[in-house]
Amino acid sequence: METTAASATAKAENLRSPRVAVAGVSGYAGGELARLLLRHPGMKDAAPLFLGRAGESASDAATTIEALHPHLAGISQQGNASHAVRSFNWDRLAGSGIEILFMATPHEQSREWAPEAIARGIRVIDLSGAWRLDEDANRAIYKLHDADPALAAKLQAEAVYGCPELHRDAIRTARLIANPGCYSTSMILALAPLTRAGVVDLDRGIVCDAKSGVSGAGKAPTSKTHFMYAADNLSAYAVFNHRHTGELLEQLHLTSDQIVFTPHLLPIPRGIMATIYLKLKQKTTAAQVGELFANFYKGSPMVRLHPTPELPQIQHVVRTNFCDLGFVLAEDGHRLVIVSCLDNLLKGAAGQAVQNMNVMCGFKEEEGLL
Amino acid sequence: METTAASATAKAENLRSPRVAVAGVSGYAGGELARLLLRHPGMKDAAPLFLGRAGESASDAATTIEALHPHLAGISQQGNASHAVRSFNWDRLAGSGIEILFMATPHEQSREWAPEAIARGIRVIDLSGAWRLDEDANRAIYKLHDADPALAAKLQAEAVYGCPELHRDAIRTARLIANPGCYSTSMILALAPLTRAGVVDLDRGIVCDAKSGVSGAGKAPTSKTHFMYAADNLSAYAVFNHRHTGELLEQLHLTSDQIVFTPHLLPIPRGIMATIYLKLKQKTTAAQVGELFANFYKGSPMVRLHPTPELPQIQHVVRTNFCDLGFVLAEDGHRLVIVSCLDNLLKGAAGQAVQNMNVMCGFKEEEGLL
Amino acid sequence: METTAASATAKAENLRSPRVAVAGVSGYAGGELARLLLRHPGMKDAAPLFLGRAGESASDAATTIEALHPHLAGISQQGNASHAVRSFNWDRLAGSGIEILFMATPHEQSREWAPEAIARGIRVIDLSGAWRLDEDANRAIYKLHDADPALAAKLQAEAVYGCPELHRDAIRTARLIANPGCYSTSMILALAPLTRAGVVDLDRGIVCDAKSGVSGAGKAPTSKTHFMYAADNLSAYAVFNHRHTGELLEQLHLTSDQIVFTPHLLPIPRGIMATIYLKLKQKTTAAQVGELFANFYKGSPMVRLHPTPELPQIQHVVRTNFCDLGFVLAEDGHRLVIVSCLDNLLKGAAGQAVQNMNVMCGFKEEEGLL
Amino acid sequence: METTAASATAKAENLRSPRVAVAGVSGYAGGELARLLLRHPGMKDAAPLFLGRAGESASDAATTIEALHPHLAGISQQGNASHAVRSFNWDRLAGSGIEILFMATPHEQSREWAPEAIARGIRVIDLSGAWRLDEDANRAIYKLHDADPALAAKLQAEAVYGCPELHRDAIRTARLIANPGCYSTSMILALAPLTRAGVVDLDRGIVCDAKSGVSGAGKAPTSKTHFMYAADNLSAYAVFNHRHTGELLEQLHLTSDQIVFTPHLLPIPRGIMATIYLKLKQKTTAAQVGELFANFYKGSPMVRLHPTPELPQIQHVVRTNFCDLGFVLAEDGHRLVIVSCLDNLLKGAAGQAVQNMNVMCGFKEEEGLL
To answer: pLDDT tens-digit profile of C13-51?
Structure first.
């Protein structure tokens, strides 16, 4: 699929380190971004600039990474000093010569700041849903209110859906990356090799039964993230109306009656599994299915394929940036079950964002992610 | 569906206590049977007889319920004495005047002992898969070897599938109850109201994505039941070939291409959720779907229906004998997602077995189960 | 210890059912009270009156037990009707002829309502810390502000610490029961047989390392009850200053330098274990220690003693009202480790409250608790 | 304490990569060793040699790291090839020019192989208990049977207890490293700064209440590592007789009546917390205690100190090689509670082993461990 990562990074040896900032470091994805970037070989010369997000009080913002995320103490490449977290401020970004801005911020915030950043010549990798969908779908689902709708629409059209396995070439030169949703990534990577090959019986419909760990629900304490609610439990939610459905439809070129996706809340901290059911149009062998996946992901170091009938498990991918895929084909040669696993905070958020940065900067795609 | 529990137990006030025995009390289902029967109002006069299972050494069998299951100490209705567990022995059963035998034993054992018990006039409630399926299916799936194949076939034909919500009348007088599988119960109760009404588009196929707690995997320590394997994990298994599929096909009158069922291992001790996807033939309203369920389960005290779009969760049913059902219908009036939850050791095993005993003996169906 | 439960309930056969109300049913302890009372044999004639707590909006209060606690649906002894939860109101209590009021309310609320209830002739079982300590200690620890300090002081002096194993006789006739803290119960029951016998070397000091499941932290979603904080974690808190320490000092007649107690938050829903370290004054045998415990808890059906060196585990007691005790004595005959386990919501809260009601009403002490 | 890591590695820039082998890669510690070494900057030129352990069948041994530990697929620094696991064989070690041998093997195996390895000029880092204690204690606790007792005794005397924070200088030149136990490490690092300073009132006794995740119990499926036993539970074990006690006594120069240590099994995969209670001889300020720790751990990058009264939690250290320490001093200036946390598979096993290798080879002490 497209240029492989290997060829793209042949000349990457003497790359200059980019100056990067992270807005919204207090959340889970922000914390993972901090962890990855603090240890990223490309950041050896200068640590990232860590920023709060609007809505946090000044006192919240004036803290350190180590105070927000105690497990990160002592891991810096820049000596033992702790890393300040400052309030978000355009002068601060300009003064630091920031070239790439990661936004782990609510979508309203991303929608407000990204145009400004791009106007200032800063490339943006946005982890929210603000720029992932077509203008219309996005507006319907996320109820966006832009200061300059025309500019927003233009940027929306320009934004690249940050799934390197699908859009590697466009990512290289993109100014605005819409980092995919966690559920979406797990399902799109499982289905794209088949839907793009046109082998799926879409009349029959695709069923995606997806399960996510609690970190996917965010850091805010709510009745749903209470330990007593989540532990020893399983619950389905947002049946027929989860926001990530829009990404499936657009990236896989499906209509809403061709796919159903039900998310569930798992009693584990992190990890997503999607179990996907579909019917192949033609009678097919398992070897043929395996080949479709292998060809599609040649040159994609962050997708691991399991030989059928072995299936990936959430444990295999937790705290990695891999998406693991496996499948079982029924004896009839038609009915197929695919299992896709990833870590929702890494390949489903912060890890994929760093992978996008790697592609944008010409680093090895897996740099700092193994 | 059939006679209601209420009318059947109108005259149950002065029922005689049956003399019951439990074979195989060392496992999880056996432990739950012991717990339920030790506190069952119908067992006030005489505690059940607790027996090991063949294959256990004599020393294993000569123990107490409290030694096997420390949490059961001190709950007896018959004073503070501990309850002996004895080795299985026909003379012992005869000497105790046993009328009903619960078998929480491996299916080979059940297949061997049930004919003998019935020949001795003892009614059997078997929790294994030994008698659940048609002779041919059973033989193919469970690889049975009977001493007297003709007798076994006769009993097989006579055995009643112990799902009171479907076969209440037959259970009343049955000599041999095949207590349903845990996964099967969750899916059959979710689907029977619809398949029996003929409203499901079977050409489209039914997808059942089911998830179970670890107790469903049994008490034997294996690499799959190791805490390090199960915790913080989710894994799919037995894709397209789980034994319980046979029960779905027979009880719902489906062919194997009309339904697919994938079990997953959840990182929780107990509980099953099945998320079920199907298409209704005709455009339907949620109210109509709700009515189908309500009518079907009128008089069934152990099924609780959630008003759409509320969905049951595993926490709601753990340590109860309820099966909770809920559903969401898509806006198109065709696509339906049903969520079914139960406790695999109770409604999925020991609780349902006691429910069957209640029906057989004329107790209130929910007696000792709330 | 005092009169045994057995003799006390000899004449309990024809007891009249008391009319009871529960204030504060929305929390975890309130939910457990509802569950226990809905199935209590003494409540067969009339279900308890369920009330919200002040501070809840009217709309919160006008709900049902089943809406607050979905797992309780369908368990009523009074038919299938759901149970209304009403806002707290003195006329409502009077109109229902309430004789006993359980208060699962914050201590400020309990401090305000208990005097009024007692003035109206209603006996109170209060689950908060409002009345557990001496006037001075209570005031220092809970920062109480009473409308009528003199009356409050009088009631404080009259209040009985609701640990039936220690104060059974006083509980029978008490107007105001201060139901003990969960941690306190686990440690007091482990230590009282030894401190009362005067065998502990108090100069050496007693160390209590206690661990509790997350339900002990309450239902309010906070950063500490977030699944991501509690899961896969263990944290110590309130070192040298947990409120329950006061109960230890008063009930065991110790000074604050003679005992240290450190609570920890366990990644489990419920259950407490206290591991207790002390030195015996005299060289002692394990049999002698066992005898001290056995004599002390003769006639106490809710304490289970493990034969040394077997130790209780949290699993043994979860969802029971038992306190399980075990110990190991060092070879030197002096150093002793005691392990005490209970369910913080049952023997540590709602179960003990019902046990107190049983004693107050002349029911069997374990009635409705097995 | 001793030479600091910083000065020792000043000239470490152009270090030659050592050739290393790992025996016993199938277990949890072995898997972590493989993960750390596959990504270690010092192993860029040549991957480690992975070996099974005796007692594994030939077929077990002839596998790959990725088959044993699926989460490790794709992380190699040496391209995408999988890494073979071969059976243990001296010719194979010689042929590969192995200089350092990690042994994640049972202590009997370590006791047999280490002398041979050293005779062949291979330095050994042994993760078992085989060489940790004085000859006599070791023999009493581990019931060792040596082929050549005199040689074994000589090596025993020479073996260095592999705690770099205590024995950094000796580790640099050691031929045989006895990598410390997981519990021991957590307690020794918490206590050494105080016992070596002579400030602890040893007559009063030290109480160590320690809790470990299930990986500490090993990979073999047993009734104790079954998910149903460990989950939602807490259990104490080996009271007064855990093997690691010997390490405490020797490293801290204590007698057995001066310290008691009780281990507990936590329902989490990994992590240890030790809560430690002691009395200081002299009235002391918290600042003074903090200074003792700070001075002791100057130059030790893998120990992180929390400012009092903040305490470390298990989550802070899981999947890191840090030991985190915190304390609270009572108002009396005497009674002290210390909390020590580490990851039992990293700082408690594989991570500390790599840390030892770093010291032995002149790498930065934290190389490959952040």
So the answer is: 456 789 999 999 999 999 999 999 999 999 988 889 999
Which percentage of chain B shows pLDDT scores above 70? 93
Helix-then-strand count for chain D, H and E: 15, 15
Annotate B335-351 with DSSP letters as a single string.
EEEEEEEE-TTTTTTHH
B59 and B114 share one domain: yes
Q: How many domains does chain D have?
A: 2
Report chain B residues whose CB lies below 8 A from the CB of A234.
211, 266, 268, 271, 273, 313-314
CA–CA distance, D112 with D90 (Å, rounded to integer): 13
Q: Does D370 fall in a domain?
A: no
B366 domain-assigned:
no
> Given an 8 Å threshold on Cβ–Cβ distance, is D226 in contact with B223?
no
Task: Give chain C positions within 8 Å (CB) of D264.
Answer: 211, 273, 275
User: What's B266's domain CATH number?
Assistant: 3.30.360.10
Same domain, D27 and D142: yes
Give the pTM.
0.95
Q: What is the pLDDT of residues A95-110, one digit of tens each?
A: 999 999 999 999 999 9
Residues of chain D in contact with residue A304, where contact means CB-CB under 8 angstroms, are 73-74
Give the number of other Cβ atoms within 10 Å of residue B285's Cβ.
10
Report which residue type is found at D154: K
If you average pLDDT over every residue of chain C, what do you get?
92
**Does residue D369 lie within any of the structural domains?**
no
pLDDT, tens digit (0-9, with 9 covering 90-100), for A204-219: 999 999 999 999 999 9
> Does the beta-carbon distance from D28 to B228 stay under 8 Å?
yes
Q: Is residue A230's pLDDT more than 70? A: yes
Model confidence at A3, pLDDT cuts 50, 70, 90, reads very low
Assess if residue C198 is contained within a domain. yes
pLDDT over 80 (residue B16)? no
The predicted structure's pLDDT at residue B14: 55
* Higher local confidence (pLDDT), C56 or B338: B338
Give the pLDDT of residue C211: 98
Q: Are residues B164 and B191 part of one domain? A: no
> Residues of B at the C interface (Cβ-Cβ below 8 Å)?
39, 70-71, 73-75, 232, 301, 304, 312-313, 315-320, 322, 370
Instruction: For residue C106, give its domain range.
Output: 5-179+349-361
Residue ranges of chain D whose CB lies within 8 Å of a chain A CB: 39, 70-71, 73-75, 232, 301, 304, 312-313, 315-320, 322, 370
Nearest to B370 among C39, C313, C322 (CB): C39
Instruction: Write phi, then psi, for B242 (nearest 5 degrees).
Output: -80, 140
A166-180, B43-57, D347-361: which range is least confident on average? Answer: B43-57
Same domain, residue pair B150 and B276: no
C48 within 8 A of C76, measured Cβ to Cβ: no
The CA-CA-CA angle for residues B87, B88, B89, to 5°, reads 110
For residues A56 and A154, state if they share a domain.
yes
CATH number at residue C82: 3.40.50.720
Burial of C274 (0-12, 13-18, 19+ CB in 10 A): buried
Identify the pLDDT of residue A15: 67
What pLDDT score does C14 carry?
Answer: 54
Q: Do D301 and A74 touch (CB under 8 A)?
A: yes
Which of C215, C228, C315 to mutate against chain A (most A CBs within 10 Å)? C228
Chain D positions touching chain B (beta carbons under 8 Å): 28, 214-215, 219, 221-223, 225-232, 267-269
Q: Give contacts of B318 with chain C, Cβ < 8 Å.
A: 71
Asked if A315 and D232 come within 8 Å (Cβ–Cβ), the reply is no
Question: Which residue from A146, A160, A141, A153 is spatially nearest to A112, judged by alpha carbons?
Answer: A146
Q: Which of B285, B320, B29, B73 is nearest to B180 (CA)?
A: B29
- Residue A123 carries which side chain, given as an amino acid letter? R
User: Catalytic amino acids of A?
Assistant: 182
C310 and C215 belong to one structural domain: yes
**Cβ A370–D39 below 8 Å, yes or no?**
yes
- A317 CB neighbours in chain B (<8 A) are none
- Whether C297 and C354 map to the same domain: the answer is no
Q: What CA–CA distance (Å, rounded) separates B355 from B366? A: 6
For residue A345, what are its two tokens? 């905070």
